[in-house]
UniProtKB/TrEMBL annotation:
Pathway annotation from the record: Quinol/quinone metabolism; menaquinone biosynthesis
Membrane topology: Multi-pass membrane protein
InterPro entries linked: UbiA_prenyltransferase, UbiA_sf, UBIAD1
GO biological process, one term: menaquinone biosynthetic process
Cited Gene3D superfamilies: UbiA prenyltransferase
Subcellular compartments: Membrane
Keyword Glycosyltransferase tagged: no
Transmembrane segments: 53-70, 102-120, 127-144, 156-177, 189-210, 248-281, 302-323
Listed name of the protein: Prenyltransferase protein
Top-rank taxon, per record: Bacteria
Amino acid sequence: MGGEGMTATYKPLTWPLFLELIRLPAKTASLLPFLFGVAYAQYAFGQIDWINTGLYFVGQMSIALFVTGFNNVQDFYKAKDEHYRQTQNIIGREQLSPRRTLALMGGFLTLACVMGLILVFRTNLSLLFIGGAAIFVAIFYTAGPVPLSRMPLGEILAGLCEGFGTIFIAVFVNIVPQPIDLVLQGQQFALTGNLAVILELFFVALPIVILDGTVMFADNICDLDQDVINQRFTLPYYLGKPLALKLYPWSAIAAFACIALAIVFGFEPWLMLVVFALVPFVRRNVKIFLAKQSKAETFGTAIANLLSVAAVQVVVLTISGLWQ
């Protein structure tokens, strides 16, 4: 299954199929952490570098497109269930060329790397290692002999990379001095960092980190039976579905608790209290998912919780930054 036969015929990747391949609606989950980071740079540090912001936007969205398309191809190749491969995975279902799809995703990855290198020259060398770690996770999440997605790490990695990583870099490229600085002088190097700023950024990012990881958690709960057939042993597999469902509501509680603490500590404005108006909406979505775990019918509630909370946070930070 690793190659393409000489007589194989494939359908062209039309625009509608491309949008499905990269799961366009889900890209909002990548866009909002970026917007949060930019808004927080303005609110907390009073700085915006629009050139760096534009470069990072192109790089971040490129890597987001790469990850989704690349994962679809890897899931097609690694699937043990032929029914899944031919009827559920978009590569097999729509008879798309895996090689051509990989080549297209490689183009997005290359574009992301180019944007990253430009930003390294415009900031400092530490960004090379920060971005490199994120790209490593993006590639080996589904690639390699033991993909990260087939281990109980997906929720943590998704939250940290797409949540904290995106927010941290969005702030990093906008403020001077940067939170971390790496300088090479001959055979010597000096690494310095502002621990207070780094911890502040991690703390304010935690609600998005948690809710982003919860989206992956909900996804893996819905796919648990199919994942076991395809030998993907995710966190819900190790927890067991009953325990996974008991833990699920606590993620939303933890996210709101972190927002409350961020306000108390002065990291976020008091206006951020308006986020708590979403509590009934989030609670209702959690109950809907607990009643039935379906990718088609209820999985969207996890995404809706992430997007609604993150969107309100971005709006509040933007307004507060403009008022200062």
